């Protein structure tokens, strides 16, 4: 399974593949593979520029995801290698985003839309 995590105050979203785990040298624990990562602050900045080119985002730590909820999920192929989901995100600053996360042939993509700022 894939797991989407928020990277704390760095405003990074990380997609982990728990089916592909590795063990580092001299370590007793296994670590899931990072399938993809995105900088939420950078994505939000591009999206905000479409709404208001002169507006500025709050500091990066305020744009990190505080809460994430799965809104909708669709498997696009029977084998499950292609799928799409919609996720609601609330940032530390109270901004609300809707993120669309999709994967086609093991290539994850993420796009966001600002719902409230």
Provide a quick synopsis of the model.
This protein is mainly beta and 117 residues long. It has one helix and seven strands.
Element pattern in H and E: EEEHEEEE
Q: What is the helix fraction of residues, given as a range? A: 10-25%
Give the terminus-to-terminus CA distance: 32 Å
**Poorly predicted residue ranges:** none
Put simply, the count of helices is: 1
How do the strands line up in the largest sheet?
4-5-6-7
Tell me the radius of gyration.
Answer: 16 Å
- Topology, number of strands: 7
Q: What this model shows, in words?
A:
The chain is mainly β. 10% of the residues lie in helices and 56% in strands. The strands form two sheets. It has a four-stranded antiparallel β-sheet with strand order 4-5-6-7. Strands 1-2-3 form a three-stranded antiparallel β-sheet. A hairpin with a 2-residue loop joins strand 6 (96-104) and strand 7 (107-116). The longest helix has 12 residues, at 40-51. The radius of gyration is 16 Å and the shape is globular. The relative contact order is 0.19. The model has no long low-confidence stretch (mean pLDDT 89).
């Amino acid at each position: 399974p894939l797991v989407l995590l928020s990277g704390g105050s760095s405003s990074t979203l990380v997609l982990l593949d728990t089916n592909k785990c590795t063990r580092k040298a001299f370590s007793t624990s296994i670590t899931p593979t990072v399938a993809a990562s995105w900088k939420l602050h950078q994505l939000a900045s591009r999206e905000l520029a479409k709404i208001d080119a002169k507006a500025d985002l709050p500091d990066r730590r305020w744009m990190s995801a505080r809460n994430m909820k799965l809104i909708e999920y669709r498997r696009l192929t029977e084998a499950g290698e292609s799928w799409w989901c919609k996720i609601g995100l609330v940032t530390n600053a109270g901004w609300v985003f809707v993120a669309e996360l999709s994967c086609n042939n093991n290539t994850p993509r993420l796009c966001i839309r600002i719902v409230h700022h």
